[in-house]
Amino acid sequence: MTDTIDDLLPELVRFRRDLHAHPELAFGEHRTAGLVADALRELGLEVHEGVGGTGVVGVLRHGEGRAVGLRADMDALPMEERSGLPHASLFSGIHHGCGHDGHTAMLLGAARHLARTRGFAGTVNFIFQPAEEGKGGALAMVKDGLFERFPCDAVYALHNWPDLPAGQARTRPGPIMAAADRFDITIKGRGGHAAMPHRTPDAVLAASQIVVQLNTLVSRRIDPGESAVLSVTRIEGGHSHNVMPAEVALTGTVRSFDAVSQDAIESALKDSVEGLCHAAGCEADVVYTRYYPATVNTAVEASLALRAAASVGLVAEVAERPAFTSEDFAFMLRERPGAYLWLGQGPRRTGEADYRPLHHPCYDFNDAVMAHGVRWFVAVAGLELAQVPRLA
Ligand SMILES: [Zn+2]
Ligand SMILES: [Zn+2]
């Protein structure tokens, strides 16, 4: 049955390249969402637009049974494309540098295949979400009642993964992507003459001590069995050789995989800043922002995701470790069991001349793996819906 997916590929590749040429930013995916909604309607699906902003949900029902959610993200990045490809972005400063054009096309391919074959009993909800890149489109859909309006026993997504060769797939039970937090610290002295430091709190010195202290938090305040990252990425203050500035600003990021570590870092960071500023006679202002939580797969669904990948001929293995990048599918996984899969994009490998990481100005989804993603989504739906319906 999966062989018929091959017939869909030329049209899916054309569709994907059209999206690539017409990228849209977070919550501005009007053209993309419109094309997706039209395509789903043509297939006879029940289509809901404007879910969580520009999100689209297509519902395919066939008999009684469980319900599964399959998710793709539709947004591009605010960056210049430099690929020089015939289907390169037509818009300056917007680029499908994360391959979400491929995700959208693959999920649409799965919808086409399942709509015409209907070899399942139950409901498939095709979830096309806006704004994965930093704006939390998944959370917007969840807040808009995604899972109340479209109940799902489990939810699945994939990401094209350039560090993995084509034909391979990885996921793991537990965390697969990190929580991403940001901190902005303002250290307030008073400002004064640099020749009279005894009369002025030294915000530069306090900032320096804070940078050093923050770099000890992961090693000293987190369980050694867990992992986390804290990086100070900006330090700004002063403009002269003989003036002590009134303020110094620090910014940085924190990545973690579990709520205990995340809470511990946030509270230790605030304590450190407050204590060091107090000792230096400065005041501190700390804004700690949690963007995305960790993306945490449930064990049963991670195993199903790998079985689905293996069943369509992919080399499917448990990922040894999670990635420190983050992903807003995390918000959906907080609500429902599910799993997130890395789909190999190779043959490009790290170190080879044509290797392009995600978010590279020349990044382009590899159309050669389009069929892999379509088949995986179809196989996931098949395995999920073949299970005994859950008791309400
Ligand atoms: Zn991205
Ligand atoms: Zn992405």
UniProtKB/TrEMBL annotation:
One GO-annotated biological process of the protein: diaminopimelate biosynthetic process
Listed cofactors: Mn(2+)
GO molecular function, one term: N-acetyldiaminopimelate deacetylase activity
Endoplasmic reticulum among keywords: no
Cofactor binding description: The Mn(2+) ion enhances activity.
Keyword Manganese: yes
Residues forming coiled coils: none
Positions of Mn(2+) binding: 98, 100, 133, 159, 359
Transmembrane segments: none
Name by which UniProt lists this protein: Peptidase M20
Organism: Roseateles aquatilis
